[in-house]
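Hi, here's the filled form for the chain we discussed.

Project: internal
Contact: R.S.
Residues: 394
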Amino acid sequence: MRMRWFAGLGLALFMTPFGHAGVAFPSPVDPTEVGFSPYIYTGLIGTTDGYSGSGSVAVHPKLVLGCAHMNYGVNNAWLPARAIRWFWKWNQGNYPDDKNGILLTGYYYFSSYQSSVRRYGMDDTRTYPSDFVANYSATQETAGGYAGGWVEDGKQCLTTGGLNKLISGYPAGRYIEGDPNEYRMHSTGFSDNMYVERDNYLGLDGVETGPGNSGGPVWVWKSGEWAFAGVLVSGTEYLSNQWSSIGVCSLNKGGWGLITSALKKTGSSGDLIKKTVALGNVPVAIPDQSSVERTFTVSGLVGVIQGVKLNLAITHPRKGDLAVTLRSPSGNTVTLLSAVVKTKSSQANLILSGKNVSGFTNLSPNGVWTLTVRDSFQKDVGSLQSGSLEITTR
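And the returned structure, exactly as it came back:
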């Protein structure tokens, strides 16, 4: 007999949804809402082991994010590549036929997950922080060109006051087999702030989803839209008036590493992990014995900085008069060129082509970068003609 939901975390109980005061439970999503955020990014995950769970398309339309214990399988071993099937926006009561899904190519996971499972067990808070996986398809998009928005720091958003949160997914294990709601998409809303259990693993009492919702995306309402902040890894059942709780693996810098690794395998990461941005408002004169500032505005990159390259063109009778610095959005400043003593000989003009700039590794790439050019000596003047910044993330 095939078990069609993953009960690896939480009590494995079969029951229909019921209400208790003060506890948030999942409820079916109206089919007319599936085409709207965040449900349009949600789907059912099926494995070759015969289990099902939940996932989401976030960051990029070829990525399906979920929890690692879905990919780890029932035999304490990682499933092979092409063992995960994705059913985008599924919202019918029956389990889908394989022909309705996309067979995903592969996945990335935290290397510490397997050792933590063997050492502590799957249902342990020391294992939960690495219970995150980035599945990918190298051949086709998984959500018709759509991809959910995300936040740079899921932990911060989920533990911050004033933000509504929502979990979407498929809590099939809460139903008796054959119930018309068994494989309907569900949502669970809450507004309380989550608390940090361990590292990027967060908990919250008074909310539950139950078996099957493992890997379901956790969204936060931020800046007028739902943004991806993490995945559900534990959704304890409510039973006999006992307390209920959920556990979430929040998005963090380590998670971005898995995402960027998967993006590179898709062959269509676009400008999510590499982007070139032109300097704004140039050309501009450089005042004698004074400075001029111009900026690069970078947005939409995922992960942290792996490398920075700079292209720059400045006309000036003496490039030795010039001092040039670059400041990152986080405030780190690197000196690219220092002025030399006036009496020393100097060539004209400053041209940089693909100059590697060190000092920004592992910082966040997004925001306003500031280039400052100073003419340090009197008499000769010049002009900042053009510039571009190329950033690669990991």
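Let me know if anything looks off before we file it.
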